[in-house]
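# step 3/5: fold
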Amino acid sequence: MEKVSLPKGTRDFGPAQMAKRSYIINSIKNVFQKYGFLPLETPAMENLSTLTGKYGEEGDQLLFKILNSGDFLKAADPRQLANGNWKSVTPAISEKGLRYDLTVPFARYVVMNRHEITFPFKRYQIQPVWRADRPQKGRYREFYQCDADVVGTESLVCEAEIILMIQDAFTTLGIKDYSIKINHRGVLAGIAELLSAQTKESSLFVAIDKLEKVGEEKVKEELTDRGFNSASLPLLFEILNFKGTTAQKIDFLLSKFSSSEKGKKGLEELSRVLTLVQNFGATHTHVEFDLSLARGLSYYTGCIFEVKIHNVGVGSVSGGGRYDNLTAVFDSKEKSSGVGFSFGIDRLYDALEELNIFPPNTTTTSSLLVTYLDDESFHYGLKLVQNLRNQKIASEIYPDPIKIKKQMEYADKKKIPWVVVIGSDEVKTGMLTLKNMKTGEQSKMTEEQIIDFIKK
């Protein structure tokens, strides 16, 4: 028989894991709703024409393509197949792909439904995405994102609220040691002007974004291979390696950007965002102006964000930014500015596990198990368990007539905190035995008393 396995980069999630994932998702969802965001879902697959060209060259290569139904080779040119050039063959054999993120499908939705939407439109979306990446710790080919975006406004209040939502979510999840890294595409454009590399901005941003992962020498090698003037690289790394407070970094860059309007505008908007956070009455203790933060996705035009939790072995757990032209790629008349960010559920899960800060009750499935000693008490228990459910108490009854010890073991393994034991005496008197599975203590109570006790 063939060995059963999963595709690389994907995972099953059992009940205990799902309980923890639901805890993360519900915590984040509550934050999104508190800030006025509405839910949205889009299909798992999109037309490749919708997806390609939105994520940069490297992103396009990571798209999962879906073969056309039936004889997918019927429209393919045999000469192209023989040449083995996948880029030329793909349009003939694949029209659709799995979504790479939730932002591009969101922009497509906005364009298709713009006459029914109230702007500014604030939506959140929690769904899986797929990337044909090399699987490794903290990086999967199928993973969930929790997105929140605002489209139809250029107000920097939205950027400030992103910082507030990240702080709120982390407070709820008990995460204390983290950094919200922030930069601006205008600042990066100013750096490109200093290097006389305006026509190579995309390559520059992709390389810079790898600095923390691969180090300075590897980034220099990549830039040299991409045709950057080696004489300009010392200036680049003088800027990227500058240390200091946010105010010091801004002053340092202002002295460099005397002739760069894009660079000065980027610094002005970034400063304004941080001021707005303070105007909300919040602090930006965890916010760090990171000059090397670039985020490789090509659609960002303004502030960009990335969040990292310290002392864990996973990469960034959140990221996003401002995009002014994303909807225009679907309709030249539709140029709605937007800004958004996303939490990576899978990385957050790994981080909370590593930090050991999941609340102990996240894995509880039922509050109470009804057990019984004989057939008469079983039928009594059926009515009891349904009465408990009618009172919104998560309850279950053991389905098979086995020894009470086995029923107790079931409750223990499922971490059910309370057990009701029913025998002939309990049926006659109506005084039921309620057992605390953690302490082993038992009490005699009526059904009404048990309901009041469990609810409290």
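# step 4/5: annotate
The chain has two domains: 15-355, 364-455.
# step 5/5: archive (pending)
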